[in-house]
Amino acid sequence: MVDFPSSPAPSMPVTARLRARASLLAAMAVILLVLVIAGSLTIVPAIMALLATLGIAALLPSAEVHVEPTVLEVLEPGREERSVAAFAEALTDPCLVLDRRAVVVHTNAAASRQFPNVVPGNPVTLSLRNPELVQAIEAVGKSGATRTFELHETLPSETWDKVVVAPLRLPGTDWLTDDARQSVVTFQSLTELKRVDAMRADFVANASHELRTPLASLLGFIDTLLGPAAKDAAARERFLGIMRGQAERMSKLIDDLLSLSRIEMHQHVRPTGSIDLAALLREVRDGLQIQARAADLDIVMTLPEGVATTIGDRSQLYEVFENLMDNAIKYGASGKTVEVTLTPAGRTGFQHLVSVTDHGGGVEPEHVPRLTERFYRIDAEISRKQKGTGLGLAIVKHIVHRHRGLLTIKSRPGEGMRVEVLLP
């Protein structure tokens, strides 16, 4: 608490003093009137007593009124600037404090990370040259009204931010005429929202495209069977076989879409079941033996003796390793073997490492980071011939993330592909 030195209050006029004590004088008059009516006091002494009371009230000094200082009056020099800085640092979004000339006064920690070139003491336009930002800052300086706009940057990476430029108004001041006025610029990231929206749009477009092709084929074959090939038994048998394949393709795509939707719905819920990972891998291999023999290759497994227990959802982990082995059989058939190993992770936070390796043609390095994207295909025609939907590795990625695991893919042209799954 800051103590303020007291100063003598200016003397009040007599009428003001009497008005301040009006209630006391009124009470005295009532008492005297009652005494006169009761006969205890005659009229002359009563009038004299009332006049004496008025004289005393007029001569007594008035009580001083103490007014508490405002917050801004209490702040010592420099305290206001520190308060603004503390306010900016409390924000989790990037925040810049500018003076009336658009010179940076303060940057909070988030702003320093996102805009390392923005330095206090320099004009903000020296580092951030976006025309919309410059116009917004100038407009706020002229009108004192808050401005909001969307900032889209493409370098060094594509980002979107909601930018709010607002005057920092202090009580009792006219912001537009104050030479010490300041404004605040805040940045709220919209990048993830934009990417999710783009992903959703791509997903709908790709899913529609994947379903449109087999549907168009089915409609074409049905029209042919109803028309020119209505009495051609050989053509009918051939067309019906193709139609069955297209229907199976649509069914597989819908199953994968539903599976992906279920996984995303429970993405935040960590599995709690206990399973034997070695036994699960053997079961997956046994289920794919027919496909492996048809592709003329062997699935070679290297598993530890005994039980390898992990925490997880059995059906989802089965789907993970079924997808990985199935891909290795489809795209690595030229290598004659698919190797599946289960070993200790040897990495903090993880217990088991499962790797699935084929010795097929491999892929170019630029494709590897995108293999887990939905509907991403290196060669769409080959993928369709292999009855792939383009969702297998996307499903694998989401399941592994739900299990708090780690998925890595390594591949080079001519050296096959190795997919590793680390599980806690």
From TrEMBL:
Keywords associated with the record: ATP-binding, Cell membrane, Kinase, Membrane, Nucleotide-binding, Phosphoprotein, Transferase, Transmembrane, Transmembrane helix, Two-component regulatory system
Name of the featured protein: histidine kinase
Record carries keyword Chloroplast: no
GO terms for cellular component: plasma membrane
Domain Histidine kinase intervals: 206-424
Gene3D superfamilies from the UniProt entry: 1.10.287.130, Histidine kinase-like ATPase, C-terminal domain (3.30.565.10)
Cell location: Cell membrane
MF terms (GO), sorted A to Z: ATP binding; phosphoprotein phosphatase activity; phosphorelay sensor kinase activity
SMART domains according to UniProt: HATPase_c (SM00387), HisKA (SM00388)
Highest taxon listed in the record's lineage: Bacteria
GO biological process, one term: cellular response to phosphate starvation
Stored CDD domains: HisKA
Enzyme Commission designation: 2.7.13.3
Residue intervals passing through the bilayer: 27-60
Top EC group: transferase
Matching InterPro entries: BphY/WalK/GraS-like (IPR050351), HATPase_C_sf (IPR036890), HATPase_dom (IPR003594), His_kinase_dom (IPR005467), HisK_dim/P_dom (IPR003661), HisK_dim/P_sf (IPR036097), Sig_transdc_His_kin-like_C (IPR004358)
Pfam families reported in the protein's UniProt record: HATPase_c, HisKA
The reaction(s) this protein catalyses: ATP + protein L-histidine = ADP + protein N-phospho-L-histidine
